[in-house]
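Lecture notes, unit on binding sites. The following record was shown on slide 14. It pairs a sequence with adenosine-3',5'-cyclic-monophosphate.
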Amino acid sequence: ALERTFSIIKPDATERNLTGAINAVIEKAGLRIVAQKRIRMTREQAETFYAVHRERPFFGELVDFMVSGPVVVQVLEGEGAIAKYREVMGATNPANAAEGTIRKLFAKSVGENSVHGSDAPETAAVEIAQFFAGNEIVG
Ligand code: CMP
């Protein structure tokens, strides 16, 4: 089915001017960027976004990192977009990511791993709604 997923190009990637290179991998995989904006996340936005990880030992580090520089938030659309983008991103830890994936190509570490993508349709809907109004998404 035609799906939408939420993507973040993280501060380690924007800092190295990799937005275009990452978008090229996304588009080459057949995903369409139907919404995109460069923002600086507030601490409150980052804490809300990652609330599910609040009890994890790396939560503080994760929030600090996500507010450390600009991010690019995106909505990606395509057939099976959620699973497809997870495939294109590669494993969370770049050490385990397959050849050709965004994280294998660009990520620095499990924390500074260049991109985020939604893990399921329910989370995709919640994540998209946190950052985009309906009229900002143009399919
Ligand atoms: P993301 O897909 O954005 O969702 C949660 C994030 O937590 C994940 O990507 C990683 O960047 C981060 N994360 C997961 N495990 C660790 C870890 N052991 N140390 C630091 N950050 C982590």
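Take-home: The chain is about 40% helix and 20% strand.
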